């Protein structure tokens, strides 16, 4: 039986996530499988990968063939590196302790890069949010100034109308007195 390590598609339209499974190569994509060893969610930034490292290493060791995408995932998680290092141990190139040291050094370097990317992304998001807030505050200030200007114009027009009405009211008794005097 030829076994494959592959992805099954789950989720909804335009929002898929993928369990990583061991399956017979003749089984349908979303059909029967032997074992589920993890999952891959490309919808998050960065993509979320959960993997049972020991079981994945076991299946690679016994000859299960990963698909191209799963090969990339296993490489990213270090399963293929550990398989390669275990091959060096079997050949006698170095011992198991050296293989563990090399793998841990690689994993630490990978984790540092991932942390740097996450920090950079978080900083960029915070900067973008701050710029949006400042732009919104500037728009609000400009609109407030425009509204204040309109209110001042209306108040001036109202004051002018009241002054004119008061002048007409004051002029009306004088005109009545003049008319009475004639």
Please tell me about this protein's structure.
The chain folds into two domains: 3-93, S16 Ribosomal Protein, Chain: A (2-Layer Sandwich); 108-162. Helices cover 65% and strands 17% of the residues. It is built from four helices and six strands; from the N terminus they run E-E-E-E-E-H-E-H-H-H. The protein has helices spanning 53-61, 68-77, 79-91, 96-181, and strands spanning 3-7, 10-12, 15-24, 35-41, 48-51, 65-66. The protein starts with a strand and ends with a helix.
The quaternary state of the protein chains shown equals: single chain
CATH architecture of the largest domain: 2-Layer Sandwich
The first-to-last residue Cα distance is 127 Å
CATH superfamily of the largest domain: Ribosomal protein S16
Largest sheet: 6 strands, mixed
Overall number of domains: 2
| Structural class by secondary-structure content | alpha+beta
Overall number of strands: 6
- Radius of gyration over C-alpha positions, nearest whole angstrom: 38 Å
CATH class of the largest domain equals: Alpha Beta
How much β-strand is present in the residues?
15-25%
Give, in order, the helices and strands. EEEEEHEHHH
Please count the helical segments: 4
The third-level CATH topology of the largest domain is S16 Ribosomal Protein, Chain: A
Low-pLDDT parts are none
What's the shape? Answer: rod-shaped
Mean pLDDT, to the nearest integer, reads: 91
**Helix residue percentage:** 55-70%
């Amino acid at each position: 039986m030829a076994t494959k390590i592959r992805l099954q598609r789950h989720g909804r339209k335009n929002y898929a996530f993928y369990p990583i499974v061991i399956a017979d190569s003749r089984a349908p994509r979303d059909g029967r499988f032997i074992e589920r060893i993890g999952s891959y969610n490309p919808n998050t930034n960065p993509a979320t990968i959960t993997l049972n490292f020991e079981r994945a290493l076991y299946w690679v060791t016994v000859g299960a063939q990963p698909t191209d995408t799963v090969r990339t995932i296993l490489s990213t998680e270090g399963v293929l590196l550990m398989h390669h290092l275990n091959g060096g141990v079997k050949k006698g190139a170095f011992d198991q302790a050296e293989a563990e040291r090399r793998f841990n050094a690689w994993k630490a370097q990978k984790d540092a890069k991932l942390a740097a990317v996450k920090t950079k992304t978080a900083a960029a998001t915070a900067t973008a949010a701050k710029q949006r807030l400042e732009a919104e505050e500037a728009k609000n200030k400009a609109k407030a100034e425009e509204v204040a200007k309109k209110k001042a114009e209306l108040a001036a027009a109202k004051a002018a109308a009241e002054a004119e009405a008061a002048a007409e009211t004051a002029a009306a008794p004088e005109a009545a007195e003049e008319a009475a005097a004639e």
